[in-house]
Amino acid sequence: MVRVSGLASGMDIDELVKSMMQAARVPMDKLTQKKTYSEWQRDDYRSMNTALLELDTLIREGIGMQKSFIKKTVRVSDPEAISVKNINSTSDFSGTLKVDNLATAATMFSKNKTSVDDQKKTLKDLGLMLDGESQTITILAINKDGGFDTEVQKDENGKDVMVNKPYTLTINSTDTLESVINKINADSGVTVFFDQQTQKFSMTAKNTGDVKTLAEIQLKGDLFTKTMQLDTTSYRAFQSGSGSVGTNASVIYNGLKIERSSNTFTINGAEITLKKETTDPVTFSSTADVDAILDTVTKFVTKYNEVIAKIKDKTGESKYRSFTPLTAEQKKAMTEDEVKLWEEKAKSGTLKNDSTLKSLLTTMRSSLYTSVSGLNGTDSLSKLGITTTSNYLDGGKLTIDEDKLRAAISEDPNAIYNLFMKEDSKKDGSETGEMGLARRLRANLKASMATITEQAGKAGSLNNNFTIGKSLNSLETRISAFEAKLTKLETRYYNQFTAMEKAIQRANSQSASLMQYFS
User: Are residues 167 and 279 in the same domain?
Assistant: First the structure.
C-alpha cells in the first residue's frame, strides 16, 4: 500500500498514527503482560516441582533404602588372605575362617604343535575348511553356580526333561580363526588364547570349581580336536597331562569345614573373598559404618531444609502490583540494569500464599513430627537427636544433635531404617500413624507434585493439558485477534489521513488555479 505522509498538510502522519495506535494498544499490552506473568508463574511452579522431586528422589535412594543403613566397617586380621564386605546383613557379624585351598578353574592346552601359523587367516586359507563349508561347535562349561546351564527338552516319550545347555556356534570357511576365538571368548563360558610362537592354544574356564561327576569343560567339533589339538574334556586333558581339572575352595568357617565353587561367596549376608591359603584362622568382625549412615541422614535433613526454605520464601514473597511485566516498547526506553531491577520486582510474588505449597509445609511438618506407632524405642526423630530449630521463622527446619545421632546409629541402625520406612499394617497407606516418616513424606510430596502438575504441567506438556496452559492458549487467541484488529485500525487511520492529504492537495490545486485566473 502506498501511503502519503503529510506532503500536502505538512503534518507528521506516521507520528500521529503511532500516537493514536499507542492508546489503542493499551488493552493489547495488558493481554501480553498477563501472558508473560502467567509464563513466569508456570515456570516458578515447575521449579518448585523440580525441588520437590529432588527431595523425593533423595529420600528414595537414601533413607528409603535399607542398604543405606546396613553399611558396615569390617575388620579382618589378615586382609591379604581374605576380604569381607557386607551385602545385606542387617546385624553385625564376626567369625573365623581358615583357607585350606583356593578354588581353581579347569584348563586345557594343545597336546601338539598345531598347523596354524596366523590366526588372522580365514579357515579356508588355513586349510581347515573347504570353500562354502560350515560346521557347528559346542562348548559346555561350568557356570558361576558350580554347575551347568540347563534347558527343558522333550525326551523320546514326549516328556519334559531338564538337560544341560551348551554354547553353540556355527562357523563358516570365510570366518577368520581370530573372529571365531573372539566370539567364543565373548559369549561362552571359556577363554581361548593362541600363542603365535609355540603355535599352541590354551582354554580356561571362566568360572572356578569342581562339578564332581562331570568335566568342567566339554567340547564338540573338529575345530577343537583337530585344529586346536585339544582333548574333548578337561578331565581327559588332565589325564593326558595337557590340562587341569577345576577345584573347589576348601575352608574352615567357624570350625565347620565347607567347600565353595568360587573364591568369592556369601554367608549370612556377608561376601567373603579368598585371596590365599592360610595356616592359621583369620578373624573378622563388623560394626556399623557410623560415618556413612550419618552422611545419608544428614543429606536428607539438608535437602529437606532447602525445600522448606524455598517454599517459605516463594509463598512469602512480596507482590509489587505496580511493577507489571514490561512491554517491548518500555524495554527499549530503559537500560539493561533498569530492566533487570524492574523485572525482579515484577516476578516477585507469583506463588505468594499459594494454598498447595502452604498446605504441603503443614503436612510435611506433621508427617515428620508425629511418632510412628508400633515401634519400640526409636519411634520419632527426636530419639535420633533431630529436632526443629528454635527460630519459628525458619518454618520448621530441622537441626541435628550429631552426638545423639551417632549413638543411635551405633546402637541399632536398622531401627532408624524402620523409623523411616515402616509399612502400615494394611500396606495400603491408610494407617498413616503406622507408616514410617519417609513413606509419609513421600506421599505428601507425590500429592503436591500431582496438584502442581495439573496447574502448571511439566517440560514438554501440551498447553491444553494443564490449567495455566489452557489460560495461555486463550490469551494467545485473544492476542492474535486483537493484533488483527489493530492492523485494520492502523490501516483505517492511514486511509483517513491519505484521504485528507488528497483533499488538501485538490484544494491547494484549485486555489492555485483561482489565483492564476484572478492574476
Answer: no
Please give the full DSSP string across 448-488, using - where no structure is assigned.
HHHHHHHHH--TT--GGGSHHHHHHHHHHHHHHHHHHHHHH
Cβ proximity of 111 and 295 under 8 Å: no
Q: Is residue 301 part of a domain?
A: yes
Q: Is 60 exceeded by the pLDDT of residue 2?
A: no
**What are the grid coordinates assigned to 209, written together?**
570349581
User: Which residue do the cell numbers 514438554 mark?
Assistant: 460
Q: What is the pLDDT of residues 178-199, one digit of tens each?
A: 999 999 999 999 999 999 999 9
Model pTM above 0.70: yes
**191 assigned to some structural domain:** yes
Cα separation, 123 vs 133, in Å, equals 10
Asked whether 369 and 379 are in contact (CB, 8 A), the reply is: no
Q: How many domains does the chain have?
A: 3
Q: Do 232 and 151 lie in a common domain?
A: yes
Looking at the fold, whether 303 and 393 belong to one and the same domain comes out as yes
**Among candidate residues 510, 374, 506, the one with its CA nearest the CA of residue 8:** 506
DSSP string, 359-411: HHHHHHHHHHHSPPTT-SS--SGGGGTEEE-S-GGG-S-EEE-HHHHHHHHHH
In which domain, by residue range, is 235 found?
107-247
Query: Are 308 and 450 contained in the same domain?
Result: yes
pLDDT score of 4 more than 60: no
